[in-house]
Every structure is written in structure tokens, then in C-alpha cells.
Design a protein that fits this description.
The complex is a heterodimer. Chain A contains 9 helices and 7 strands. Chain A is α+β, with helices and mostly antiparallel strands. In chain A, strand 3 and strand 4 form a beta hairpin. In chain A, helix 6 packs across helix 9. Chain B is mainly α. A two-stranded antiparallel sheet of chain B has the order 1-2. In chain B, a hairpin with a 2-residue loop joins strand 1 and strand 2. Chain B is flat, with a radius of gyration of 24 Å. Chain B starts with 28 loop residues before the first helix and ends with a helix. The chains are: A alpha+beta, B mainly alpha. At the A-B interface, strand 6, helix 2, helix 5, helix 8 and helix 9 of A face helix 1 and helix 3 of B.
Chain lengths: 247, 138
């Protein structure tokens, strides 16, 4: 195995570049180094001006998402050796504006996320004296998969619908809405459905499925959206055929 | 839903927005498969039209049916129908494989594995095929 590998890193310095350029760095390639280790080596040893986000280094914080050889990846979980002999092209996440080098602007997602009410909504809270809201393991299993989202936004970078229509609420936000809809303690499904049963919501999704394939936590946002569509369609049918009291 | 437009941020004065290429669907095999799946709907529509033409031809008697057979023997129509057959199979297979993601079925308090849902679709497809073949050849 080669002991070194070339990183082709996209650079964008707004004060001097009109558009992104590419810069090559030669970095070590031990078998236990991930792409993020290579970037940290560049930052520490070769070029301190390189900008990128990272934090936990263990696939929990969701900060270090980038495009590696064309695929959205968590760079802390993507081994350099898998790309030997290289080169490895590292770009910012697609579909987001680039702030600097590998740092993207994520304000759009942060503004959309609270609109889907990703918290437990209760019509009426029961008194504290009655204790906690209990849940069986089966009820937990209903939504647990969707609760694993770490907001890394790889799914947004993979979604061509979001790339073409930035008003689309997007995979992670809808999957998180579904996570609370399926929670037995939640009573906010109606509020979320009114909000998301929209062309910019669930109906904007054309089921490309790439969000599910790139998700590092196996959340399956595409599955969440299709299940949501089924719920919305059944709700519409019930509204069409049944009197209000029977829905 | 329209979130507020991105506002000016003092410290990020010049974001770079990459344009989306009109050929984005050639970037990966999965995007291409998606586009082919969407295009397959056109051929599904043609299959329905062709079936309706057959029904109309049968309702017009043996002369009408003979005209329909002549139309079907046209090399252009024959080629179109061969392409349609490919896309119909592609359409069915891709949607059958995606069905488990959209359908969650519970039986006996447990979630039915996705592979069973896809398998039940394929089984119904096979049964329908056998019935049609039996009607035609039987």
C-alpha cells in the first residue's frame, strides 16, 4: 500500500477568488487515517489557511460532511486507504453556498428545521404527579431509526430536488418530523401534516432515494417521506369520504 | 412553505453558489436509474393507449382487428413496443423494490420484513403473468 496520497482540495477564498479553485497536498496514508486526518495534517503541517468544519471525529456531531470523490461523506468515517493510490478529491457539500474553502452555509437548513416542529407536541400535558409518559420497546422501535439523524446534511447534498429547488424542506427535516409523528407520546401529527403536505414539503420529493444511500446513520429519509405521503394520501381520502367526526 | 430568504451576513459577504448542471442526472448511476424510472412512465402511458386501441379495434369487429394487427406489424410500432416492454419491466422492478420503504406492515405485533413486501409484489406479478398466459394459450 502507498504510504502517501494526494489530496485535491477545493479552495475558495472570497477575498481573492472569483470562484473555487483546486489545490493539491501530499499527505501520509496510514491504514487507520481518515480523510479528516489528512485535512488536519494539511492544516497543522502544510497550510494553516485551509478552512473546514469538524468536531467529534467519531460520527456523532455531523460537522465534517464533505464531498469525497463526488460522494457526500462524513470525512471522519471515510478512510484514505480506500481511495489508494489516489488522488482523493475533497470538495464542500453540494447544494449549499460555500462560505470559505470546505465550509458551507447551513442557515437554510437551520431555518427550516424548527418549522416542522421537531419536538413532542402535546394537546394537553398531564400533571407531573401522574409520572412520565411511558413507552413500550415496540413503540420505541416505531421511530428509533428516524431519531438517529445527526443533522450532517449529507442527504441535502445528495438530493437533486433540493439542488434544483432550494425551497424544498428536504430529507432530514421531513424525516425528523416523521420521527415525532411516530412517537406514541406525540400529538402534533396534524399540525405537521398541514405544514408538510405541500409541494415544497413531502410532495416535492420524487423518491430519488440517494438521501437514504448516503446517510451515515441509516436513517432512511426517503422511506420516511414515502410513508408520510401514504399518510397524507389516506388523510385526504378520509377527508373526502368520511364526515369530519369519523376521521 | 417559503422560509425567509438568506439575509446578508457581515462576515460572509461573498458566498459562492455552484450552479446545478442540466446534466446532473449523468453524475451517478443512481441518478441515471432515477431518470430512467421517471421516463418509464411515458412508456407505461403508451402501453395503456395501445391497450385502449386494441379494445377499440376488437369492438369494431374482424376488420378493425385486422387493421390493428397490421398497425402492430409496422416496424416502427414493433420497435416502440419492444422498448415499451423493457421500460415496463424496469418500471415494475424498480417500484417493487422501493415498495418496502413506503409500506410498513405489521403482523402479529411485529413488523413484516421489507423483503417479504417486495416478494409478495413479485409473487402477485408472477401469478398475474401465469393467469394471462393461461388465458392466451389455454
Amino acid at each position: 500500500m502507498a504510504d502517501r496520497i494526494t489530496l485535491q482540495v477545493v479552495r475558495y477564498r472570497p477575498e481573492q477568488d472569483a470562484e473555487p479553485t483546486s489545490q493539491e497536498y501530499d499527505v501520509p496514508c496510514p491504514k487507520d487515517w481518515v480523510v479528516l486526518d489528512g485535512l488536519n495534517y494539511v492544516k497543522d503541517q502544510l497550510d494553516g489557511t485551509l478552512s473546514y468544519r469538524w468536531s467529534c471525529r467519531m460520527g456523532i456531531c455531523g460537522s465534517c460532511g464533505m464531498t469525497v470523490n463526488g460522494q457526500p461523506k462524513l470525512t471522519c468515517a471515510t478512510f484514505l486507504a480506500d481511495y489508494a493510490p489516489g488522488p482523493v478529491r475533497v470538495e464542500p457539500l453540494r447544494n449549499f453556498p460555500i462560505v470559505r474553502d470546505l465550509v458551507v452555509e447551513m442557515g437554510d437548513f437551520m431555518r427550516k428545521l424548527p418549522t416542522v416542529k421537531p419536538w413532542i407536541v402535546r394537546k394537553e400535558e398531564k400533571p407531573l404527579a401522574e409520572g412520565e409518559y411511558r413507552q413500550t420497546p415496540q413503540e420505541l422501535d416505531e421511530y428509533k431509526q428516524f431519531s438517529m439523524c445527526i443533522n450532517c446534511m449529507l442527504c441535502y447534498a445528495a438530493c437533486p430536488v433540493y439542488g434544483l429547488d432550494p425551497n424544498f424542506v428536504g430529507p432530514a427535516a421531513i424525516a425528523l418530523a416523521q420521527r415525532y409523528n411516530l412517537d406514541s407520546r406525540d400529538q402534533g401529527a396534524r399540525e405537521r401534516l398541514d405544514l408538510l403536505s405541500d409541494h415544497e414539503g413531502i410532495w416535492g420529493c420524487t423518491f430519488v432515494g440517494e438521501c437514504t444511500r448516503v446517510c451515515p446513520k441509516h436513517v432512511d429519509p426517503a422511506g420516511a417521506i414515502q410513508r408520510y405521503k401514504l399518510t397524507a394520501a389516506l388523510d385526504w381520502l378520509k377527508g373526502f369520504f368520511l364526515p369530519r367526526g369519523a376521521r | 412553505m417559503n422560509p425567509p430568504p438568506t439575509s446578508y451576513t457581515e462576515f460572509h459577504p461573498r458566498w459562492y453558489r455552484s450552479p446545478v448542471s442540466a446534466y446532473w442526472w449523468l453524475r451517478s448511476g443512481t441518478y441515471l436509474a432515477f431518470i430512467l424510472r421517471e421516463i418509464s412512465s411515458v412508456f407505461v402511458a403508451w402501453a395503456v393507449v395501445y391497450l385502449l386501441l386494441l379494445v377499440r379495434a376488437v369492438s369494431r369487429g374482424s376488420g378493425g382487428y385486422r387493421d390493428f394487427l397490421d398497425l402492430s406489424a409496422n416496424p416502427g410500432i414493433l420497435f416502440l413496443n419492444l422498448v415499451t416492454l423493457f421500460f415496463l419491466a424496469f418500471h415494475a422492478v424498480t417500484w417493487f423494490n422501493l415498495a418496502p420503504q413506503a409500506m410498513v406492515v405489521h403482523a402479529g405485533g411485529k413488523r413484516v420484513p421489507g423483503v417479504w413486501i417486495a416478494a409478495s409484489n413479485y409473487t402477485m406479478w408472477a401469478v398475474a403473468t401465469v393467469v394471462v398466459v393461461w388465458i392466451i394459450l389455454g
